[in-house]
Amino acid sequence: MKELIVSDNDVFTQLTQLLNSQNAKYRVMEHPTAGKSEEVAKIRGTQLGQGAKGLVCHVKGNGVRQHVLAILPADQQADLSKIAKAIGGTRASLASPKEVDELTHCVFGAIPPFSFHPSLKLIADPYLFVRFDELAFNAGSLERSIILNTQDYQRIASPTLVEFIRTNHELDIA
Fold it and tell me: Strands (DSSP E) along the chain, which ranges?
C-alpha cells in the first residue's frame, strides 16, 4: 500500500477550498521566508498581534492523552498548564517535530490555525478575536500567508475558546 504524502501545497489547497466554500473574506500573500513572527508581520504589513500563532501541544495526565492545536495572537505567550487544565490533563508540552508533521503536514512556523486531523483538537484564546478585524497566518508554507477576516475565521474554524495566554504576573517555571 502506498503511503499518503501531503505537501504544503495540499494544506494550502485544503485551506483555500474551505475558505472559498464558506464565502470567507481573505487574501493570499506570497513572501520571502521569515523566521520570526515579528519579521513576517513586517513583510505582510500587519501588526504583530494580528498573527495567529499555532502551537501543537500534547496534553497528558488524569487518563487524558490529547494533541491540541492552540491558537493565540503572535504577540502573546502560552501558559501550557492552562491548556492542560482546560483539556482535563495535568501537564502539557510542545509536540515533537515528528508529531507536528504527522498531525499538520507542516513545519514549525507554517501551521495554519485550522485542524484537518481528527486527533488534533483546535482551541483558541478569546483574546485572538477582540483586537483586529483581520488575522494573518502562514498557510502551510513559510513563503505563503493568508490574511483572513477575524469573524470568518471564528465562524469557519469554530475553535473551542480557552483562556491560556500567560499574564505578566505569572512566572514561567520550567
Answer: 26-30, 52-61, 64-73, 91-94, 120-124, 134-141, 144-149, 160-161
For residue 140, being part of any structural domain is answered with yes
For the chain, how many structural domains are there in total? 1
Give the global pTM. Answer: 0.91
Q: What is the pLDDT of residues 42-70, one digit of tens each?
A: 999 999 999 999 999 999 999 999 999 99
16 found inside a domain: no
Distance, CA of 127 to CA of 165 (rounded, Å): 8
**Domain at 70, CATH number:** 3.90.960.10
At residue 7 the predicted structure's pLDDT band, cuts being 50, 70 and 90, is: low
Domain containing 125 equals 27-161
Q: Residue 171 is placed in which grid cell? A: 512566572
How many C-beta neighbours within 10 Å does residue 128 have? Answer: 26
